[in-house]
């Protein structure tokens, strides 16, 4: 009867939650490519843990997204929205050339996702840097349909229209979930970024005083290099494959994008301590910090970085100043 | 080249998004026009050593976005093209020369960018004096700036930059008005009007960090 059904539902929910926590644990150290699309949808909170509700949720959310498109997208040339649209429109061709996004079909999809997000989030609207955050989701979800290794050369328009629409809606919602957690990075004056850059400075001064002093002596301000690190989550500093690996962990870690990222940035900066200490003037330091040599980085480097970040988090999270060396 | 007369000169490039600040800078420093480049987030920097009247000048060129605060000032401008390398070096070097001889020692920083909701945003800058003409009376820099320059506050010359010091110049890059597409097609952005003004930058930064101080 009712009671039995009720108990069954609770048990099912508990099983789902257990599964969710297992998934987080497993995903922390990297998700295999084949299961990444579904894992990301679960980890981001876009898909419910409960298996029975997944398909209906997907259908409902996809419908909802295209209702937004129907409702708002025609207004992109209206006086009140044309600045937003224009900025998105000229930014998309100026994103990393390493992905499939310069294909007209991809440009179209990115414009829609970003415009709808901006209109639905007037507190921040579109801010440069947000555009980059669509890419990992889009690429991961496209990969579900690609056999070969090389994503870059894949012709997106060869996918059926319906598949592309699903990818677009899923990317929109997952990006929205991500941005919900870091919205103050993009509201006016970008207080989230300001705060995190200050926290990074504080953290580095505690974990590596020599590097901190060196930067200070040469008048390098953390804001001058770390603004970008916070603004698009290190996406400009490492190759896309590394960002995707990084996000496996960010989505498994509580407050991964908003908090754990700080420790990753600290580990990332200190990773270059030798090179930093060798640079002896302001502009050489800044040029180095804005062009870090990560082009050949892969999973291994990211794993080392994440392990170090985890260690730092363990040692310094909520730690009072007496932790200072 | 007499390297004892070496001067660090900092140039900031500001202007609306997509006008070609990065392209201009790359053309000047690397003599190249990149068809594909990424949007600049925050600020970026390049450097170049030149000699102006036998004084070696290290230009620290930083490209930035900020409000068009110098719009109404009477500032010389150049027509430039980053794509075709028209007037790029001339513009940078004329500004460098101008900065060497007629620099105004300013202790201000930029006013708050007015691009988005600036009215209700507090500015962290202490003062934003109007820049009128070269040769105005020097103003005392804030302590931060004095430390940075390695000298005690006060007693700044108003007519020239002493060797071994650093100074700053702003290039304000504009799009030609007719090229500003309302929507749809992106504007032809590689041609712009370049305005220059010499000033001394103090070390402070904006709430919205599109302008980074030194």
Automatic annotation (TrEMBL), chain A:
Keywords: GTPase activation, Phosphoprotein. It holds the Pfam family RabGAP-TBC. The keyword Electron transport does not apply. It comes from the Eukaryota. SUPFAM superfamilies: Ypt/Rab-GAP domain of gyp1p (SSF47923). GO terms for molecular function: 14-3-3 protein binding; GTPase activator activity. The keyword Phosphoprotein applies. InterPro entries: Rab-GAP-TBC_dom, Rab-GAP_TBC_sf. Residues 30-254 form the Rab-GAP TBC domain. PANTHER family: TBC1 DOMAIN FAMILY MEMBER 22A, TBC1 DOMAIN FAMILY MEMBER GTPASE-ACTIVATING PROTEIN. May act as a GTPase-activating protein for Rab family protein(s). This is Rab-GAP TBC domain-containing protein. The lineage of its organism: Eukaryota, Metazoa, Chordata, Craniata, Vertebrata.
UniProtKB/TrEMBL annotation, chain B:
This is RAB7B, member RAS oncogene family. Keywords: GTP-binding, Nucleotide-binding. InterPro entries: P-loop_NTPase, Small_GTPase. Residues 134-168 are annotated as: Disordered. PANTHER family: RAB FAMILY, RAS-RELATED PROTEIN RAB-7B. GO terms for biological process: endosome to lysosome transport; phagosome-lysosome fusion. Pfam families: Ras. Residues 145-168 have a biased composition (Low complexity). GO terms for molecular function: GTP binding; GTPase activity. The keyword Transferase does not apply. The keyword Translocase does not apply.
